[in-house]
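Dock flavin-adenine dinucleotide; give full complex structure.
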Amino acid sequence: MQQVDVIVVGAGPGGSTTAFLLARRGWQVLLLDRAPFPREKTCGDGLTPRAVATLVRLNAEGVVAQRALRVESARLYASPRADVTLPFDPHVAPLPPRGYILPRIVLDDLLRERAVEAGVHFRGNVRVHDVIRREDRVVGVEAQDRAAVQRWSAPVTVIATGAGVGLHRALGILHKPPHDVRAARGYWKGVRDLAPRFEFFFTPDVAPGYAWLFPVNEDTANIGVGVYAPPGTSAPSPHRLLHAFLQRHPELRRRLDGAELIAPVRSYPIRTDYPSHRVCGRGWVMVGEAAGLVNPVTGEGIDLALESAILAADAIHTALSSGDVRRLCAYERALKREFAHTFTGLRRLRRRVMRPRALELLIRRARRHPGLATRIMGITLGTVSPYTAFLPSTWWWILRGG
Ligand SMILES: Cc1cc2nc3c(=O)[nH]c(=O)nc-3n(C[C@H](O)[C@H](O)[C@H](O)COP(=O)(O)OP(=O)(O)OC[C@H]3O[C@@H](n4cnc5c(N)ncnc54)[C@H](O)[C@@H]3O)c2cc1C
């Protein structure tokens, strides 16, 4: 059995970034993914200003910017009367006033390549199906590659498997299905009137959820729908909502007239349930969506995957340097401090405010009140507490009209 310092399972943004940071500190890291790379990931491909802030910290904005479409505003649409485009400058301060759109087949491979350049050993086509335990400690993983069952051992295993929960079951930490959003997206070529901005649509056709249109270049867009679907409830299929939305919405019908769907629409579940289970134990930690870290309101998780990777890499480095793997769980405490309260607030906001009539009112008012616009952007990006949505001053802006 081959021995390394750290095994990272999953080469999405969370896994590749954790691997990169640890290899740069001199640890021997093995990064495994069930897919051969480059690989598609069903996603809206949007990098928020919050993600850009972390890419800057990781010194990775430059490589991403070279391949991506830069956006500097977001359009929020609920009806012809509630339609506003908010520039990131000044509404997202102190975050950088820019985002990017880059298909994940490119983004994830860039981040994986950076990890390999830093010394990480990557193996694709390797599906990890179990952890190896010694007494109460995880000491490695067992995987299936094309040829045979393989085993690797390490004092630390990082689970960065996104919405996949096979290893959570193997660890015995998951007692109910955690996916609470379903989303579908496709790429259309020949779309009219594309502008370098994120577009979000909160119309009744896509409730309970929203649609997006993110341009990937001057005539092609990633268009999709995310539907809030708490486990155990029946929610409409995102595929069906997407097709109904594109057929019924007069503006989208016009903009897509003559456009061609260039890859089949694909759907994938999303987890926004942090903190619903342990994200750390003896010899293991979880980063990114594997920990349920996706924004419950926007469905965006690349930014949080990158941030959790930085926190995890710090805790792993400290634990390995001290020879005491119990110190790994400083990571769990750091995550809690950073995200637990915010996630509870965002889920509350999703239940109470993410309804077409409420959003229509909010967007209409945001056109007139820059302070409200800043608050909406800040809440969705995590720079303003979601609890401010329930403050009297917010409702004063909304109810007094303008
Ligand atoms: C339709 C849709 C649209 C979205 N749009 C956006 C958006 O615009 N912006 C945004 O920020 N977020 C978006 N998200 C969320 C975002 O995709 C995820 O939050 C993000 O990819 C999480 O990154 P990660 O590194 O944690 O996991 P992932 O990117 O999911 O990577 C997990 C990796 O683990 C591998 N893996 C899984 N199981 C195993 C196993 N057993 N063995 C080996 N390898 C394994 C997978 O192959 C994969 O490469 C969207 C999600 C969906 C479904």
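Observed: The longest strand covers residues 260-270.
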